[in-house]
């Protein structure tokens, strides 16, 4: 009985008191407020009139909210010979196909690396890990040469295809797929399921947190792509490029620049919040152990 009492006392000491929990939550609350201040200021700057934008010292919250900044932004975009809707269409095409294609390609390539044995498996995986060690500036010239060789320069594919070969996604999916019990995959094969059906009905639902996380990262990266390296035609360029041209106008376009900053931050944050809820729900309900 004495060892049990000692074990019970030792476990009881590890639990935090109510005061400790309150202090921890208070600290996390203030840290959350501090981290949210840049987002709050971006949203308030988008609603500030010009006199409040140039006010010193700058105020975080707006006193006289207005939508003139967004009105000026749309007026500037309508003055261009390419419609504003065209930039939005280009952005959703590039971001959508780049994100979905990257998730599919990364998961399809990670499945055999995680659940199959074949010659050269370790070498291929080490090459993938090694590719992540290089900076994007090192691979910029080879990527441009490959795009030119494929004759897809100045097309959507020039931005979409390079997004599919990002090694970080394959590494993430492979590491997550290895946590799935091998017996589950073998049972699916004994039931007569094909490799494609096993991948689509067994593997992908159980690695939902991984590919949702990957989709968040890839969406943010594709959303911020200006396409200036491969796209020369104005009607093919994404929204990010057009908005950067507006912000380069200087102080006279400070209001429109504030609206641009809000738009560029709002879409990725919204996508992140939607996917984050699904990630947390999936992690708590679909955990599996050997």
CATH superfamily of the largest domain, please?
MetI-like
Work out the number of β strands.
0
Structurally, the number of domains stands at 2
State mean pLDDT (0 to 100 scale). 81
Largest sheet: none
Strand share of the residues? under 5%
Overall CATH architecture of the largest domain:
Orthogonal Bundle
Alpha-beta classification: mainly alpha
Radius of gyration: 25 Å
Please bin the fraction of helical residues: over 70%
Query: Can you write the helix and strand succession as a string?
Result: HHHHHHHHHHHHHH
Shape: globular
Regarding CATH, which class of the largest domain? Mainly Alpha
- Unreliably modeled segments: 4-14, 282-290
In the CATH scheme, what's the topology name of the largest domain?
MetI-like fold
Q: What is the terminal-to-terminal distance?
A: 33 Å
How many helix segments?
14
Subcellular location: Cell membrane
Family: Belongs to the binding-protein-dependent transport system permease family.
Transmembrane segments: 21-43, 87-111, 123-150, 156-173, 254-274
InterPro entries: MetI-like (IPR000515), MetI-like_sf (IPR035906)
